[in-house]
Amino acid sequence: MRRVVRQSKFRHVFGQAVKNDQCYDDIRVSRVTWDSSFCAVNPRFVAIIIEASGGGAFLVLPLHKTGRIDKSYPTVCGHTGPVLDIDWCPHNDQVIASGSEDCTVMVWQIPENGLTLSLTEPVVILEGHSKRVGIVAWHPTARNVLLSAGCDNTIIVWNVGTGEALLNLDDIHSDMIYNVSWNRNGSLICTASKDKKVRVIDPRKQEIVAEKEKAHEGARPMRAIFLADGNVFTTGFSRMSERQLALWNPKNMEEPIALHEMDTSNGVLLPFYDPDTSIIYLCGKGDSSIRYFEITDESPYVHYLNTFSSKEPQRGMGYMPKRGLDVNKCEIARFFKLHERKCEPIIMTVPRKSDLFQDDLYPDTAGPEAALEAEEWFEGRNADPLLISLKHGYIPGKNRDLKVVKKNILDSKPTANKKCDLISVPKKTADTASMQNEAKLDEILKEIKSIKDTICNQDERISKLEQQMAKIAA
Fold first, then answer.
1. Distance (Å, rounded) from C-alpha 168 to C-alpha 148?
2. What is the pTM of this model?
3. How many Å apart are CA 264 and CA 130, to the nearest integer?
């Protein structure tokens, strides 16, 4: 007997907006005309690009800080032009990158418990673009590797640890870049551009691996993202301005594996992909719905699951990584929908009767540890994400933030000094200056180590005293 309905454990996924008191209220979401998501989320914080006079700013709120947000709440406000895109570092929940109309990328360190004062000093400023920077994207598996793309049609890959631009792809795109996506292990990127081409690029070889002209024939913006199996998923518009989605195999991009027409709305479809469940969520800017699809190996390959609808249109959308979800409630996705004046979490759940951990819904997922150091990746090594189990929930690690700050401050300043030395003095003196810098660096490192040891000893002493106090009090 032929099955009439395709079997899938995700057929009954349903979305639900949280109650009003669990929303983030009275936020002036940015009105800048740029098709980014305006929101970035991780298991600790939600970051939202906001309206700011005299420059660009974004809010960073601890997840539990729901309710009305005071107008005087501190912001991250070091940019001199509007902020266009933000992205949390996947290997450090307190580090966020921002790209702006002021042509710079800035990397920020957020204090463990959130901001108490406005943050104006980034850990590092990355300067190299000649026009506004609309896209920032961290490498999925290598520590401190950040990609930025600007309206100068250039993609730069940075080593944030040293503040240097290590790859500059300035002759691949002839028109504006709409979006950039890393593949699963960060060996390739795919881009969608205003010239209607989708390109698959090897950034280290600086060459195009595959490209498709007129992936979508319409003139409105496209999006292209990598899936876990190496295929590329795109959203765009047909010649008749109908919204389309398509699936491509980079080894043969002549014809799409699947192509679906959706509707005639004119908002750009932002795709959010979950590699663990192979579900893609499509959020249209200006829409009031989230459509979701399952990608499988069976025809028609892209299977419509359902639509979450609400009354209010969305200005932007944040997507929580898998490790930030509540596994006890069978939550498989959480979105942070931006309205004009608030941010509303939306929870996607698979209905299950049992309260036990559902291991079919939660295969091991990408954890917060980097699989490679920046230098290893730039030398040509690849590595898949290091996976973690969510069986007992995800517990954020303590004090991982110190690593990045220490590395950024110590690694970026001496290199800046070296550059100045090289410009202003002959080569011999430059060498001696760099040797002096290295000696200073060693001294500083030794000093930091001794301070750390002292702190550890003091910590032990304090905990012993606390125990003694507790005994006396008891």
1. 10
2. 0.82
3. 36
